[in-house]
Amino acid sequence: MAFEIERERLKELFEHTSDGVMVIDRALRIVALNPAAERLTASAASGSVGMRVCSELAVCQNAEGFELCETACPGVAALERGESHPWLEVNIPGRGGRVAPAACIPMKSIEGAPLAMILIRDVSDRAELEERILSIERFDRVSGLYARAYFDDLYRREIKLAERQGRVLAAVITALSGDALDGPEADQVIRVVGDAIRASLRKVDLAGRHDYQTFAMVLLDTDAAGAASLISRIESKVAAIRATGAFTAPFVVRHGIGTVGEDGYGGLLRAARQRLARGTTREPGVIGRKGD
Asked: Which of 18, 122, 181, 228 is most exposed by smallest CB count within 10 Å?
């Protein structure tokens, strides 16, 4: 009776655990796999039972990424010598080569035949957490635009690609100043301008927060006129928010433009910053002058 209860518990674990469980025989053929293993390997039990495990479902490898099938198969070690391998990685072809942590444990059938269990750990939650952490590192918390380090990396790649393809680029530097940046409305101002920039860009454009009160944009296939048009859209959106009385303190939004035609690929952002500093921004206007 006790054995029957334990067997039922094992069956329940097999069916409902979030980790993948595959049982293989001495010929390394799959004799059973649970629903989690089906999900993790993108393979149905109906088409997988009887298949060699390392053919299409899961390829065991070491920490350096070398396959163990031919030289040090953990399944063979478990089946023939009763050895456990608690720290493995498996490459899952059905999931585009995704690598997951695993273990290989010796076991026996009811008849006493040697079997091995390959346990594939479900790390999807960890992957989602890592993605969230990466998202936090990629995006500035206040403006919602790319963070400086991530933007700089994308900017360098975009410049190299555009130069190789001979494509036109423009860069815009947008800077904020005024009393609002020194008071309790500072984050709100940065957020509103960040939202206006993001809403004004196309999907192929890049924008990041360059420092506390400066934003940088890179515009693909765009000349000075296109950059000025973008600035106009940004200003219109910020002006619409200001018109609602959202801010009590004044602030100014200024812009500088750099273009490949005038400044070359390597000098885009530098030229935009210089024009911003000199006030030669070629922009339609300035939002939020003191006294507005």
From this structure: 18
